[in-house]
Amino acid sequence: MRDRKLYRVGIPLAVVAGAFLLAMSCADGGGQVSGDVGDIAQARGLSQADVTAALKTYVPTGKMDEYLLFSSAGHGGQVLVIGVPSMRLLKVIGVFTPEPWQGWGYGAEDTHLVLAEGEMNNRPITWADTHHPALSETDGDYDGQYLFINDKANPRIAVIDLRDFETKQIVTDPLMASNHGGAFVTPNTEYVIEAAQYAAPLDGSYAPLSEYEEKYRGAITFWKFDRDAGRLDLDQTFVIELPPYWQDLSDAGKGPSFGWAFLNSFCSEMATGGIESGNPPFEAGCSANDMDYLAIVNWQAAAEVAAQPGKTVQIQGRRVIPIQTAVEEGLLYFAPEPKSPHGADVTPDGTQIIVSGKLDPHATIYSWEKIQQAIANQDFSGTDDFGIPILNFDAIIDGQVELGLGPLHTQFAGNGVAFTSLFLEPSVVKWNYEQMQVIEKLPVHYNVGHLAAAEGDTKSPDGNYLVSLNKWSLDRFTPVGPLLPQNFQLIDVAGPQMQLLYDSPIGIGEPHYAQMIKADKLNVWQTYPEIGFDPRRMAPAEDPAMPGEERIERRGNEVHVYMTAIRSHFTPEHIEVNQGDNVVIHLTNVEQALDATHGFAVDKHNINVSIEPGESQVIRFTADQAGVFPYYCTEFCSALHLEMVGYLLVKP
Ligand code: CUK
Ligand code: CUA
Q1: Single pTM value for the model
Q2: Contact by Cβ (8 Å): 98, 608
């Protein structure tokens, strides 16, 4: 209602006048409105709320955003970096999918090596269904060093270094058929957590669905992160076998619950579908029971158990703690959770876990203290079919709060305040989990999935900005065909009432989750630290081209070209080889000036490399076609950029 109240000249004028000085000098014509702020607002039909929203989001030229939002790009396979509060898209990071502007997967050998790590069953996989980015943490706070993201479709995790915003590693999880409960990190990024979604045999073998309960399994993988190396360490990674329920989302305990992880599941009915054979369809079979399970996992103790001989089995080269061992060692408990839950979120102080039921209007608040007591007292209501003890529901909850229809994901603002997405309403509900009270609801547009709050997964959320990641945008944007963009809505949550500030269309993939970090926590490199630097190893390159040492060397049928790039030429400018030669170009951008990036494209060879100041890359290809092929710089780097060119001459 207050959104639509027409702007009135008066009270806010003094406030807005300064910021709109530029607008006042708008040129006439072209549909532009000139005049003072009040006139502009009136002519554009802006309400008072619209004008305050504009003032809260507008970031003038030369000024920078306060936060960075790292968002999954969904099945776009990449990571989006968005400034907050402006909601400007700053970068699309090439992750699982080739990205030509960054030269990600178009000839630079390093990028192909990283992408090749993501092959599964010897098949290159160049798309991903990215869901959950996770910023690295130190002592429960985002530290701005690394970002991890999962691929649901092809169970993988990627590691991005936030010094240069490039993907450094992709690991595959051969045990899982699909994943979902990742990436989530423990409070010091000891581990990156990933959980299987749809159950399947862990050894990758065939088993008919009639053997579902015997042969199909879930799993939770704890990827060990080696921070010094900036890589996930497969040797220290371990897996805990889980029943063939569908694992949903994980969160790591912190503070008093440090050392534990929480993972909710659905389809504990173990339905196997088959509507075409007269069976209940998955959607009915998987929501028949009133309760599913929240898995409560002691990862600290599990790491010790995994290190003991005889306590694990090797499956597809991974150390797996069997369910029975996990139960015997006290690593795994279940808590009942109502009803087809989605989302498990640990409160900032680590004392409670909030779980929403997709088909239940309530959020359930679990008490970590009560869970510990129930475990100590063996206060179990039974075990599941696989012998996992089920904690007595009534003994471990602090309560349930009716939030609304289709509650999904919860984010935090501190002081007991939480925000939960209501998919079906669709709204964001602000509530207090300590007082167990709903405070306010704000409609969003439309069908909200995750929410991302400023520093929202840390032990001290900032409580000012919230982004609602909406799946449908319906009538919010100028039509662009039947495939509509997603809609990120920025919400000011600092005041007593939430205010919707800005709609940001996301025209690449369907993002699921995002995390928002204070921009000044990052320590971003402006250029590579020295000339001849290898971004994949984050170290000086082994055999870079260096200025003054450019040359062409023939080694058998391999032709090594040591080439430098500087405004506005490549050296050398002529490369002549014989048809069938293997060409290896060692290419270094010898610039040290900020933003002096050069591109390197070889026509008709599917090669386009981006070399940022200082970077060195190796480009390998076979000159299998005789002919004349210009190579040129694809970044408009200088007035003589068009002259930044050379000829590859391939003699028959
Ligand atoms: S999920 Cu997509 S809206 Cu993969 Cu986190 Cu809930
Ligand atoms: Cu270098 Cu254009």
Answers
A1: 0.94
A2: no
